[in-house]
Amino acid sequence: MRAVVDPDVLARQAERRQVLGRWLAHGALGLGVLVFALPIWITLMGSTHDAATIGRGDVPLLPGGHALENYATALGQGGGRSMSTPVGGMLLNSAIMALLIVSGKIAISLLSAYAVVFFRFPGRMLAFWTIFLTLMLPVEVRIIPTYQVIVDLNLFNSFAGLSLPLIASATATLLFRQFFLTIPDEYVEAAKMDGAGPLRFFRDILLPLSVTNIAALGVILFIYGWNQYLWPLLIVNDRSMETIVVGLTKMIGNGDAQNEWNTIMATAVLAMMPPVLVVVLLQRWFIKGLTETEK
Fold first, then answer.
1. Radius of gyration of the chain, Cα coordinates, nearest whole angstrom
2. Residue 111 lies in a domain
3. Rounded distance, CA 60 to CA 57, Å?
């Protein structure tokens, strides 16, 4: 005879399996968060202790009483071998460089994508694929000729020298092109009927529709510009023009050098704050720009 299985028993077993699956998924996610968050937490706590505590090899997991002193020292004087370079100045340099890269990349990418999508001219697709192929040539690959050009133009130790070689972006051009291709043809026809020229169509129709995409790309490009290390290291030898990423590495001594780890950790926390604030403040626009498809 065939055994009769109670449907309620099957439902309870399925529910238990779902609950177990959810607990396992949340456990894995929690472990991942712990792995990524623990070093940041240790850095944050270490920035509130004195140099002797960290120098003894203690790993602080609770706040200390030297937070204001450490952060004031970092902002006003710097630390380690960069004692003459205040962190406040390096943060300002990084912010200016990142904002110049963001504004330059978005402006050039918008215009190039607009030309490729809405204008018909010989070699249009050749121009687009030429731009796309530059993805294979990041600044690290072309660093020697780029460095020579910057020196010849006398842009050494300047914000123009820091930002101009990093402004062109094939990725942003591709993303804007794909977005512009989804613009209904009715918008173009309506603009022509209203007598709108190319610039007015770009300013009054395309830019408002592209706000969320611009915000999403702005977040990504700001973090990209903020985290630049190799190019600022090469193009700047004036301590007053150093960015925070370069300055942070120079704070750490080599060999038997005594490091002021409390000030270094405070500097690391300060270096993380601007990108975190950008992501938090523009989080809604960032997600909307990556997921929204309706025009």
1. 26
2. yes
3. 9
